[in-house]
Amino acid sequence: DESLEGTSRLLLQTGFVYVCIVAYICFFFLCLWLVIDNLEGKYESLATTFLITILGVAWSSFFAPILVNLQNHRTEVRQERGRVIVVAPVRLILALVPFLQLAFVRKYTYSYCSTTLEEAALTVYDSPESVSSWPASHTPKMGSDGNLTLPDLAFLNKFHYQDPATREICIFGCYPISCFTDETGIHCVTNCAAQLEQSLTYYYFTHCATTLGFVVIAIFLSHWAWWMESRQARKKGNAEAYTFLQVQAKLFPYEYGSWGGSREEDFMELAIRFAMLTCFSAQVPYLVLSSLLTNIVEYRLYAYRMVAVTRRTSPFPSEGIGIWQFVFQAISKLAIVVNVGLLVFFQPPMQEWEPSAALSWFIVMEHIALGASAMIESFVQSVPDDVRLIGEFNTHISNLILTDKLDKIEMKNAGAVAYEPLNIDVSLSPGVEPRGDGDRGIIGAFTELGCCAVCGEGEDDSSSDDHDYGF
């Protein structure tokens, strides 16, 4: 609606969009807290996977299109950009926050307290309300007098603290479930590590299965539409061949919300898996190999979908992948911080350090890693040197043409480099013999179109009299 441009109503609608984004994320946090507070183990992992999947699909399919329309985008490029800004942050937060919570938050927000360490340990391990069982190497033993003898609780030395307010002894929310001893002491794997691995596995394979499922459904629906129309035609005695136009009419368009896929949806699925792998593959290494195998299958299905399921799209110019470049760069920076955090706060032996010491090391290592990343990016240019030089030269020549200064160019060392003529068919009918002198390559083609203003002296510009292209 052109009448909304620059009005306070459009400003309010845009603000309402961002309020809805924040509200939806808060609703997800509430649901996640209910899951964590009421479930444990594999049930928590399954519920978390279900929550991420359902809320992600609901946001992408139902809420995001409505909110994007409220922003009143006037061009397809602006609409695509606005759709990415609305969809991508929410989907990435939904996909990453539950696992980041397990890795960095649960240890300090969930604790089990009592007057003594022994009572706190019984709360965690050996009461009717216990949430886990004792580590295999540290189990209680029943004495001859019928009393339970607790094991040595030295394995909990790095996993408890004293509450300064109540003076109670509290065991962290991430407590040991298996321990081993070496020459450096006792080292333990926590329940958070096991829960993180289980949750990542459930969610990753569910995400891959749903993505593949949507592609397979699109293939089935398109083939079903062809078969039904062919069947009805045969019943009516129409034996004519199914034409290409009829096939195209039954295919799904390549647009957002279509079974034929879209640029935003395809990139979104790729971005989620890229974020999962770069952030957590060090914790669950086998996801790398499984990702390779699922990507091989998925992208073959994508290729088939683009050929046999998606309607032919109208070509339009595009400079790279647009805003998705920023999304992937942001994910890469986040992955650096997450991996350093996992190393410091989640992996032995650094997870057993004092919080202040661990935080200091995290800040130092994170800055070093981000600095190294920035240095590498400065060495690797996004545009090759030859392409950059060609672009600068073309811009310079274009400016000279527009200012009528082309005849003032002084060519230095003009004979120093000899260029072979380019024999490239740039016609609209490939395979047809191009008009003009083929040995003159692209310059010859430009000359034929009346573009001799860029050819220099000595070129035949007689053809410019026969054409008027507005040069």
Q: What does this 3D model show about the protein?
A:
The protein is mostly helical and 471 residues long. 58% of the residues lie in helices and 6% in strands. The protein contains twelve helices and seven strands. The strands form three sheets. The protein has a three-stranded antiparallel sheet, with helices on one face. A hairpin with a 6-residue loop joins strand 4 and strand 5. Helix 1 (8-38) packs antiparallel against helix 2, helix 2 (41-70) crosses helix 5 (191-235) and helix 3 (76-109) packs antiparallel against helix 5. Mean pLDDT is 79; it is low at 436-471.
Outline the fold blueprint:
Layout: H1 8-38, H2 41-70, H3 76-109, E1 112-114, H4 117-125, E2 141-142, E3 148-149, E4 160-162, E5 169-171, E6 176-182, E7 185-190, H5 191-235, H6 244-250, H7 263-280, H8 286-308, H9 324-346, H10 355-379, H11 385-402, H12 441-448
Antiparallel strand pairs: 1-5, 2-3, 4-5, 6-7
Question: What is the compact description of this entry?
Answer:
The protein has helices spanning 8-38, 41-70, 76-109, 117-125, 191-235, 244-250, 263-280, 286-308, 324-346, 355-379, 385-402, 441-448, and strands at residues 112-114, 141-142, 148-149, 160-162, 169-171, 176-182, 185-190. By secondary structure, the protein is mainly α.
